[in-house]
Amino acid sequence: MSDASSPPEAVAAREPQQYKIEAVASLRQMLERTPNAVYADYTGLDVDAMAALRRALGEQDAKLRVVKNRFLRIALDSMELPTSDACLTGPTVVATLGREPSAACKVLVAARREWPLVIKGAMVDGQILDPAQVEAFAALPSREQLYAMLLSAMNGPVRSVAGVLQGVIRKLIGTLQAVADQGGAAHEADG
């Protein structure tokens, strides 16, 4: 019989099950490889839609994975990455963004038009983005497009200088030709 004055027995803390430890470790590895990710609610997506979305993201070097919010939160906290309650509630799928984050975001934003995918937010360069910011990020030009725009902007002044120099050289050649023609005519008149 227990005495009311005796302290209650300590409840033994349970060790986490091995599959849970492995799931969190797997999420950590995923986030270490590509920490930029979009979080979405996939409720209503059937198997065919998920497969099509995975294929489209795969073309952009991105991956799609269904996760348990608790495991993802533990993985993010252990890596000291920011978390958002809005992103980690309800059914969650994580799209890691690969080497071209805006291209993968474009795929996800476009997928919302076809399927009932709800973007909850994202983590890009250690910052949490809300759904509106994710859409704005998806609207940005890709890295290749930015390079092309930069090269075009840099090429414009070079073309202008080349055109001006070409005009100056053309005038110089014309002047030299006129002088040579006048000199030749003067020699013929003397001769």
Mind explaining what this structure looks like?
This protein has helices spanning 18-33, 47-58, 69-78, 101-114, 131-139, 143-190; strands at residues 37-41, 63-67, 92-96, 118-124, 127-129. With 191 residues, the protein is of the alpha+beta class. It has two domains: 18-140, 2-Layer Sandwich (Alpha-Beta Plaits), CATH 3.30.70.1730; 142-191. It has a five-stranded antiparallel β-sheet, sandwiched between helices. Helix 4 (101-114) packs across helix 5. The longest helix has 48 residues, at 143-190. It is rod-shaped. The N and C termini lie far apart (143 Å).
Write the layout of secondary structure elements.
Elements: H1 18-33, E1 37-41, H2 47-58, E2 63-67, H3 69-78, E3 92-96, H4 101-114, E4 118-124, E5 127-129, H5 131-139, H6 143-190
Antiparallel strand pairs: 1-3, 1-4, 2-3, 4-5
Percent range of helical residues:
55-70%
Mean pLDDT: 81
- The count of β-strands is 5
Number of helices: 6
Major sheet size, sense and barrel closure: 5 strands, antiparallel
Strand order of the largest sheet: 2-3-1-4-5
CATH topology of the largest domain: Alpha-Beta Plaits
List the uncertain runs.
none
SS class: alpha+beta
